[in-house]
Amino acid sequence: FPPVTPINGGVTPINAGVTPINAGVSGRGALVMHGVGFGRSDYSWAGTLGQTGLLLTSWASDSAVAARIPPAVTKGSGLSLVATLGRVSGTAVALFTYDGAAAKSLQNSNAFCLARSVITVFGSNLGAVGVTALARIGNSVCEASIWISESAATCKVPTGSGAQLDVAVTVRGGVTTLSHSFSYDFAGVTQ
Q1: Please, what is the end-to-end C-alpha distance for the chain in angstroms?
Q2: Each residue of 27-83: pLDDT tens digit?
Q3: Based on CB atoms within 10 Å of each CB, which residue in 1, 114, 139, 155 is the most buried?
Q4: Whole-angstrom distance, CA of residue 153 vs CA of residue 124
Q5: 10 Ramachandran zone, left/alpha/beta (phi>0; psi -120 to 50)
Q6: SS (H, E, C) 116-177
Q7: Which residues, in sequence order, are bridge partners of residue 153?
Q8: 130: Cβ contacts below 8 Å, ≥ 6 apart
Q9: pLDDT lower than 50: segments of the chain
Q10: In what order do the strands lie in the sheet with 64-68?
Q11: CA–CA gap between residue 165 and residue 185 (Å, rounded)
């Protein structure tokens, strides 16, 4: 049998960087790995970002491969990008990050101390696809926390008391807090 010649000319891909280096958790946009040795023809590439497979990977040139940025599976900083062509791969180490969660506002900033009303926390990067959200008011965990979208999560208010309590939402290992944003209403005695 004749020797097998690698389709990229035997050059191991060398990576110089990734563009962009950061994205929101929804994973929108294109991710490009820059370097040399990605081949002289349009070959089918595959890739991963951290532990997540890349979607719609494509060869752009000998110096670039591209893919769609996947939704974040976990909170990530310093994720490695690996591009693979057959048995040849190139790695861009610890170059990519996803933005952390950021709470910005609260709908229904107060509730009756015994009522089980629902509040909504609005923000950004609260998760990409049906993640588990855990919310708390002060030191009490909400009776139910529901992820609604990348920009909203709800909390079924627990019985409690206090004023100017923090509301915190934990998603994908990251916590975002609205300080001094919630108060309980107390029952008044009327005559």
Answers
A1: 101
A2: 778 888 887 777 777 667 778 887 788 877 787 887 888 888 887 765 566 777 777
A3: 155
A4: 10
A5: left
A6: CCEEEEEEECCCCCCCCEEEEECCEECCEEEEEECCEEEEECCCCCCCCEEEEEEECCEEEE
A7: 121, 147
A8: 147
A9: 1-11
A10: 14-19, 30-36, 64-68, 55-61
A11: 12
Strand order in the sheet with 152-156: 102-107, 118-124, 152-156, 144-149
Count how many residues are written for the chain.
191
Instruction: For residues 180 and 168, give the distance between their C-alpha atoms in angstroms, rounded to a whole number.
Output: 11
Q: Contact, 137 vs 185, CB < 8 A?
A: no
Tokens of 150: 């990348």
Residue identified by tokens 């919630």 is: 182
